[in-house]
Write a structure and sequence with these properties.
- The protein contains five helices and eight strands; from the N terminus they run αβββαββαααβββ.
- With about 190 residues, the chain is an alpha+beta fold.
- It has a single domain, classed as Pnp Oxidase, Chain A (Roll).
- The chain has a six-stranded antiparallel beta barrel with strand order 1-2-3-6-5-4.
- Helix 4 crosses helix 5.
- It is elongated and about 55 Å long.
- GO terms for molecular function: FMN binding; pyridoxamine phosphate oxidase activity.
- Its EC number is 1.4.3.5.
- It comes from Pontimicrobium aquaticum.
Amino acid sequence: MSKTKQPISLFSEWFQKELNLTKVQIPTAVCLSTIGIDNFPNARFVSFKEIINDSFILTGSLNSRKGIEIKNNDKVALTFWWTKTERQIRIQGIATEINKQLANKYFSERSKKSKAVSSICEQGKEIDNMERLEKQILRKVAEDKNIPRPKNWGGVSIKPLRIEFMEFKKTRFHDRKLFEFDNGEWNMKQIQP
């Protein structure tokens, strides 16, 4: 690719600009889409951690609905929308589980209450008494000095195959660039608004 930035570098540049401008509480929020075991798409917001080896890292419960769906079908999509810079990035790729050492690192960075929630809750399961569950979590926070990472908590590394960058324009003549990974290299196409 001549005169065009590689997509991972371009993502990092756009992300940093948004982080410098935004005042939103969770600037790392990204929409993760998976294919459900019922063949319906599912989308939810999660927290993007970082890029490692040109792959996008997310963490969470591996036995949650999203974790089960990723194990069943490793094809996923990420959608970033940044309000300050009015930019959108859509990514399609293949998800693989991160190693235990990396999962331990991310878990250690969580707050004590977040660790307690992750160790007690079965994400997405039905509950009949929310108050009892909250008391159980508060008790764990008060009693345990060090809450270990549960075996079902980890993360995924998403290796992108397609990345589309879109800059919104007031004229509605949006600038869209699509990068596709083929034969070991990124190819870019300018696509219509």
